[in-house]
Design brief:
Layout: H1 2-12, H2 46-61, E1 76-83, E2 103-106, E3 112-117, E4 120-121, H3 126-129, E5 137-144, E6 175-182, E7 196-201, E8 215-223, E9 232-235, E10 244-258, E11 263-268
Parallel strand pairs: 6-10
Antiparallel strand pairs: 1-8, 2-3, 3-7, 4-5, 5-6, 8-10, 9-10, 10-11
């Protein structure tokens, strides 16, 4: 009987359920989110972007390619550009001249100064079109960074030679910021050909005097990437022309300031 009881107790004992192997969890797909940056990382300045554009232009002209992750992508920037340095224009710019450059123009009877900036439509430009359909950008609004040989934010010290006959044509623009808008994104921040405008008026009965240091255009935002992961693309029509380089960005703020930093007018994203 003892042997029988032992046999029955062994029959009643259940075998442990087999342990199923762990199923690996797939990693989340990569996104274009900004990389993690150390706390307190300062925004990129005009000098930083000009230096990066110069490196990109050199690599393009040499037929090489910059490798590795682009340290610009995901960085915030705050670029200041001086304009109106020689005094406001007396004749409004022609429509063909409205191409992503800030301008100061005298109003009627010199009683006001009109500050204006109309972004260029760069969607069909060779630099953007050459990025490929994978860019999936619905709108690209362009802003030039004038005088790329001048690293500082202020006006140039060089003045026109009064003995030189005729006007001196400015050099072609070679460095720019392309504000990109993804397909299906909000259109509230898009200008669609509309200018940023601010009118400076005299205070009281005092005559309006143009400031000697001109004005400042301020562009703030975040650097993003072209397809392929680089922040800057360059192109040149030939080997003896300086390449034109543009950085892809998302704009958060556009503003006009006085030379001393006093804010005049601003437009923020959304």
């Amino acid at each position: 009987m003892a042997a029988t009881g032992l046999f029955l107790s062994q029959c009643d004992r259940k075998e442990p359920a087999p342990v199923e192997p762990a199923v690996p969890v797939p990693e989340a797909p990569a996104t274009d989110a900004a990389p993690s940056l150390p706390a307190g990382t300062p925004p990129l300045t005009r000098t930083d972007l000009l230096a990066a554009s110069a490196r990109a232009a050199s690599a393009y002209a040499a037929g090489g390619a910059l490798t590795g992750s682009d340290p610009l992508v995901g960085r915030s920037f705050a670029v200041r550009m001086a304009f109106g340095c020689g005094g406001p224009l007396t004749v409004p710019p022609t429509p063909a001249a409205i191409d992503g450059l800030p301008r100061a123009t005298w109003g009627q009877d010199h009683k006001s100064i009109q500050l204006s900036l109309t972004p260029g439509d760069w969607l069909d430009s060779a630099l953007i079109a050459g990025a490929g359909a994978e860019a999936a950008w619905e709108t690209v609004e362009g802003f030039w960074v004038p005088r790329p040989w001048l690293a500082v934010d202020g006006c140039p010290a060089v003045r026109r030679d009064p003995l030189q006959a005729g006007s001196t044509a400015p050099s072609p623009q070679t460095v720019g910021l392309a504000a990109v808008f993804a397909t299906g994104s909000s259109r509230l921040a898009q200008r669609n050909g509309r200018a940023y405008r601010y009118t400076v008026r005299a205070e009281g009965d005092q005559p309006l005097v143009a400031p000697e240091g001109g004005y400042r255009l301020v562009l703030e935002g975040r650097v993003v990437a072209f397809p392929g992961g680089r922040a800057i693309r360059c192109r040149a029509p030939g080997p003896d022309q300086r390449p034109v380089c543009i950085a892809a960005v998302q704009l958060d703020r556009v503003a006009f300031e006085r030379a001393d930093g006093e804010a005049l007018g601003e437009w923020r994203k959304g």
